């Protein structure tokens, strides 16, 4: 796996975890400190995934665009990274 | 190598210098990670995290860091591995210009601070 795809995978998993924590908190206990702490963290992770997907070299346009979708971008990017890994070498 | 330098024609490039500059790019790029870390810590301590200019500066810094790490450094490596006809070097120059421009905008934001609660 290319280092770029590895980085994108790790970042998108972290983004997905952060958004899951936020939504879970919203649906259940609704603790204000959790929102205050995880909110900015999720923002930073979203930004990191978006910038990495937009500026990384040799990525499909769909991988770049779907990474920008709020909330679901992490899931899309995890799936897209899987597809990019299986991509034939000749296409590089 | 003085003989090699004397034999060099104008416009010809020096691989040694290019290698050194590539190393400097990577070194400074990694060292520059301190900038956003210290910046975010300062913004938290001063309670300024919600201000618009900080958010804009963080986005611009992330884009600049992405350009450096994902475009400029790999392209430098490629250019060193396979020296081309100069087109890839012009592209590199353009990217470096965009990077510098982003940093300049961030510096201006730090001074002007639009949307700041207190000056």
Structural features, described:
Chain B: Keywords: Membrane, Transmembrane, Transmembrane helix. Chain B: The chain crosses the membrane at residues 28-46, 52-72, 92-112. The complex is a heterodimer of chains A (92) and B (119). Chain A has 92 residues and is mainly alpha-helical. Chain A contains four helices and no strands. Chain A has helices spanning 3-27, 32-55, 61-66, 73-86. The longest helix of chain A has 25 residues, at 3-27. The mean pLDDT of chain A is 88. The relative contact order of chain B is 0.12. Chain B is mostly helical and 119 residues long. Chain B is built from five helices and no strands. Chain B is elongated. Classes of the chains: A mainly alpha (92), B mainly alpha (119). The interface between A and B is small, with 11 and 11 residues.
Give the gist of this structure.
The complex is a heterodimer of chains A (92) and B (119). Chain A is mostly helical. Chain A has four helices and no strands.
Topology pattern of chain A, helix = H, strand = E: HHHH
Taken together, the total number of domains of chain B comes to: 1
The Cα radius of gyration of chain A reads: 14 Å
Main interface pair? A-B, 11 and 11 residues
The total tally of domains of chain A equals: 1
- Helix/sheet category of chain B: mainly alpha
Query: What proportion strand of chain B?
Result: under 5%
| Unreliable stretches covering 5 or more consecutive residues of chain A | none
Please report the number of helical segments of chain B: 5
Main β sheet profile of chain A: none
Share in helix of chain B: over 70%
Keywords (chain B): Membrane, Transmembrane, Transmembrane helix
Transmembrane segments (chain B): 28-46, 52-72, 92-112
Organism (chain A): Polymorphospora rubra
Protein name (chain A): DUF3817 domain-containing protein
Outline the secondary-structure elements.
The complex is a heterodimer of chains A (92) and B (119).
Chain A: H1 3-27, H2 32-55, H3 61-66, H4 73-86
Chain B: H1 2-7, H2 15-31, H3 34-45, H4 52-81, H5 87-112
Helix pairs in contact in B: 2-4, 4-5
């Amino acid at each position: 796996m290319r280092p770029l795809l590895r980085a994108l995978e790790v970042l998108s998993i972290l983004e997905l975890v952060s958004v899951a924590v936020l939504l879970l908190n919203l649906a259940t206990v609704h603790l204000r400190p959790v929102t205050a702490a995880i909110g900015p963290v999720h923002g930073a992770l979203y930004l990191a995934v978006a910038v990495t997907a937009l500026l990384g070299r040799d990525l499909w346009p769909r991988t770049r665009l779907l990474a920008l979708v709020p909330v679901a971008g992490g899931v899309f990017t995890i799936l897209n990274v899987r597809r990019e890994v299986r991509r034939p070498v000749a296409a590089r | 190598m003085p003989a090699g330098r004397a034999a060099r024609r104008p416009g010809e490039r020096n691989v040694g210098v290019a290698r050194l500059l590539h190393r400097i790019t990577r070194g400074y790029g990694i060292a520059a990670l301190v900038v956003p870390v210290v910046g975010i810590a300062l913004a938290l301590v001063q309670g300024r995290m919600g201000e618009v200019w900080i958010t804009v500066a963080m986005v611009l810094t992330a884009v600049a860091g992405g350009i450096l790490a994902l475009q400029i450094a790999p392209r430098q490596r490629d250019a060193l591995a396979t020296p081309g006809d100069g087109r890839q070097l012009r592209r590199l120059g353009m990217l470096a210009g965009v990077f510098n421009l982003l940093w300049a905008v961030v510096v201006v934001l730090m001074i002007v601070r639009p949307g700041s609660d207190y000056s």
